[in-house]
Task: inverse folding
């Protein structure tokens, strides 16, 4: 019979140890959120997945990691440039788009008036908060798992993902946008919305994950607040389900998966983090990226099939001529 | 829509590339059916790097354009030497790669008695266009 891969069990044990370690870290320190720690945990996961693989796979991995690092470095840098590039700050435009879409109502204000309770954390606050924080986990898990299981699928994912980040970063530079919480905050001079509470971490703290929220607050201090259009939270929330949707068979599960980006968008608006327009812009970019790469891949596939068919036809024709 | 991965083995690719082979017409006919599946995205086609390396580059770029490469390394060759079955070396390597890459379907050329090197294994074996 065929000898088994002796490294298969080693990789399985490695993944089990990784999972236990990750869970322990999650319970003691909170979720890993900063880019360096996320990168380290992803690298450990991928290295485990490559234990005992041929050298060629390792060389491919090094190249992939370089591309991946360059992508995130460019993303972080461009978020910084958005501040200094000098393009006019968009203050009223996204709010006006929201008002147009919702017949004169500000969705951020409406949601907070109807659902936000300063003194009570409701179940939906926890759901919204948990949904918001999946942004830091889902894409990374998807990338790491694809990296280990199928390089081809990882490349398909990355092409779409890098396109999304590239377009988003370009927009951050060209269209620096004031988010709703800032537009409503008294410490800024805009005040084009009624006062909004920025209560994003509250639900997560109520779930007992205070450490993670503290880390997130620190990350916010380093982040670029006016890189709000498009919303990457909304984009990623659609991106990951959309990529895996063709593999999901049950209709009810497809519907559930597709409800996720809607819950994310509603959460972002409820927290005052983004306008609806930001989320829609993110979804449009995701859709465009999928359409573009889907078209490119179909064309590449048809071209290859056509080359083969033509070559086979030529062989048959030459054989007929000889006969 | 589920996609089936199919490994074109050494004998199949050789028959496809060699117009003088007795199996060429049969392999070509089968391959056309596989390409239809490839175009419909129901088939992914693979061949071993060791198999493709034996062919002229123009065949790789034309007839075998839809075929993806499975890279064979020393550990695969070493495992192939330990395959416990009475099959030629290239078929043993194919069996190792099928197991390592979790591919369940192999396209091959049958011997005159209709048997193949993969009959003793739980694999889907494509030997002509009817069985694909």
Result:
């Amino acid at each position: 019979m065929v000898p088994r891969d002796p490294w298969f069990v080693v990789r399985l044990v490695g993944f089990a140890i990784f999972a236990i370690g990750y869970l322990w870290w999650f319970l003691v320190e909170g979720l890993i959120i900063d880019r360096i720690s996320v990168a380290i945990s992803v690298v450990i996961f991928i290295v485990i997945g490559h234990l005992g693989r041929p050298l060629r796979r390792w060389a491919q991995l090094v190249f992939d990691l370089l591309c991946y690092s360059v992508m995130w470095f460019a993303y972080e840098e461009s978020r910084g440039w958005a501040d200094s590039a000098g393009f006019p700050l968009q203050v009223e435009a996204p709010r006006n788009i929201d008002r147009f879409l919702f017949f004169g109502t500000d969705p951020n204000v409406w949601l907070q008036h109807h659902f936000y309770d300063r003194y009570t954390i409701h179940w939906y606050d926890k759901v919204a908060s948990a949904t918001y924080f999946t942004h830091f986990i889902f894409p990374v898990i998807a990338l790491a798992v694809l990296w280990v299981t199928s390089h081809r699928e990882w490349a398909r994912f990355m092409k779409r993902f890098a396109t999304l980040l590239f377009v988003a970063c370009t927009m951050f530079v060209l269209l620096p946008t004031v988010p709703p919480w800032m537009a409503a905050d008294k410490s800024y001079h805009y005040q084009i919305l009624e006062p909004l509470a920025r209560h994003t971490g509250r639900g997560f703290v109520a779930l007992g994950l205070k450490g993670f929220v503290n880390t997130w607050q620190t990350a916010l201090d380093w982040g670029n607040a006016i890189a709000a259009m498009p919303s990457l939270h909304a984009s990623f929330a659609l991106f990951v389900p959309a990529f895996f949707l063709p593999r999901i068979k049950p209709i009810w599960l497809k519907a559930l998966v597709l409800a996720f980006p809607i819950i994310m968008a509603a959460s972002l608006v409820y927290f005052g983090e983004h306008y609806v327009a930001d989320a829609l812009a993110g979804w449009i970019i995701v859709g465009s990226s999928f359409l573009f790469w889907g078209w490119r891949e179909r064309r590449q596939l048809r071209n290859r099939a056509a080359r083969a068919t033509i070559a086979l036809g030529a062989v048959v024709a030459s054989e007929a001529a000889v006969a | 829509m589920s996609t089936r991965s199919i490994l074109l083995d050494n004998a199949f690719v050789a028959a496809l590339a060699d117009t003088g082979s007795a199996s060429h017409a049969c392999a070509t006919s089968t391959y056309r059916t596989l390409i239809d599946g490839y175009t419909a995205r129901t088939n992914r086609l693979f061949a071993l790097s060791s198999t493709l390396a034996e062919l002229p580059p123009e065949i790789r770029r034309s007839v075998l354009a839809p075929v993806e490469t499975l890279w064979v390394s020393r550990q695969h060759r070493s495992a192939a030497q330990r395959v416990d079955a009475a099959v030629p070396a290239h078929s043993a390597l194919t069996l190792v790669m099928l197991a390592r890459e979790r591919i369940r379907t192999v396209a091959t050329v049958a011997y005159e008695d209709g048997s193949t090197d993969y009959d003793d294994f739980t694999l889907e074996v494509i030997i002509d266009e009817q069985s694909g």
